[in-house]
Amino acid sequence: MAYRILFEINRVSTVTPSALFCFSLLTHRLRGIKEERLIERARWAANWIKRRGHTRFSKKLDDLKWAMTEAAERFARDGLLNMQDTGFELVYLPVEQRRLALDYYRNNIIHHFVPAGIVALALESFTEGAVPFDALSYRTRDISRLLKFEFLFRSERHFEMEVRRALDNLKSEEVVTEENGFVVKVTDQEEKRALFCAVLEHFVESYWLTARALKILIKGHLHERDFISSTLRMGDNLFVQGDIRLYESMNREVVKNALKTFEDRKIVERTPSESRKGPVLSLLPPYDDKAKLKDFAQTIRYYLPRQR
Q1: How many angstroms separate the CA atoms of 104 and 123, rounded?
Q2: Number of C-alpha atoms within 13 angstroms, CB side, residue 169?
Q3: Predicted confidence band of residue 153 (pLDDT cuts 50, 70, 90)
Q4: Cα of 228 vs its chain's centroid, Å
Q5: Which of 93, 246, 277, 288 could form a disulfide with 82 if both were Cys (CB 3.0 to 4.6 A apart)?
C-alpha cells in the first residue's frame, strides 16, 4: 500500500520551475551552463514530461524564461547558485558543496526520466556502437535491480513494459536506432544520451562509494550510523581526488538504500540493536574478503561512463 501511495503521489505531483531548473542544471556535465542553454533544456524536459501524459504543471511555466530566471535568482539568494555574467552571456554555476540541496528539487521530477535513464546508462556501459538487444536488456535489468529501493514500478510486468517504452522513446528522440536485433547509438547524439545517463549517475556513484566503503567492515562490525559517517568522509576524500565527480553522490539517504540493496543480496547482514546508532552491520561470506569486495564494487563502477 505504501508503494502504491508513493506511485500515485508521483503521478499527480506538480512540475515546478524549481524542479525543471535544477534538473536542467544538474544534468549538465560541465562546470556551468549558459542561461539560453538551460532554458532550452528546461523546455525540452517539460515537453518530455507532457508527452508521457503528465498534465500538472505550475502556471508560472506558461512563461518559461521568466520562471527560470526567477528560480535562478532565488537559488542565488539562498547561496546555492552563482550567476556569472561573462560579458557575452549569463552563466549559471551550482555551488559544489550545495548541489545536494539543488538535487532535492531535481528529484521531484526525476521519475519521469528513470526508465529512459536506465536504458541509456545500460547502453553506454558498452563501448561498441551497436549492442545486441538481449545484452542490453540484461544490463538494464541489472541496473534496475541495483536501484530497486530508489524508484517505484507498479509490478514486474509493468517494468518490462516501461523498459520497452523507454527504448521506443529514445528512438523517437533519435539518439538510438534498432537494426536487425541490435540497438545502435546515433553517433552525433552523444550529448543527449549523456543527459539521460546523468539522471541516474549520482545514484550509481553513491552505490559504488558505499560498496567501496564496505571494506571498513573487514576490521569488524559497525553500527549503521557510524558506517554511514565513515562512508561520507571517504566520499569527501574521493571527491577531492576526483574519483567521485558529483557532490550529490554523498547523500546519506541513498547510502542507506544502498545498504538495503546489499543486505538483500546477502552481502551485508544487519543485526537489530537498541543503540541510537541503528543496527549493527557485518559482512557475510564470501564478501568478508577484500578482493571479493573490490570485484563487487567494480561491477557497479562499470555503469559510470567516465570511470569504466
Answers
A1: 27
A2: 24
A3: low
A4: 19
A5: 93
Closest CA to 118 of 134, 147, 140, 133: 140
Amino acid code (one letter) for 171: K
Q: Domain 2-110 is of which CATH architecture?
A: Orthogonal Bundle (1.10)
Q: Which three cell numbers stand for residue 143?
A: 541496473
pTM of the model: 0.93
Cell 559544489 locates to 96
Domain range list for the chain: 2-110, 113-197, 201-307
Please name the fold of domain 201-307: Arc Repressor Mutant, subunit A (1.10.10)
Residues 29-64 as b or e (16 or more Cβ within 10 Å = b):
beebbbbebbbebbbebbebbeeeebeebeeebeeb
On the question of pLDDT at 177 being above 60, the answer is yes
Level-2 CATH architecture, domain 113-197: Orthogonal Bundle (1.10)
Contacts of 185 (CB under 8 A, 6+ apart): 123, 129, 130, 131, 175, 176, 193
Say how many C-beta atoms besides its own lie within 10 A of residue 154's C-beta.
Answer: 12
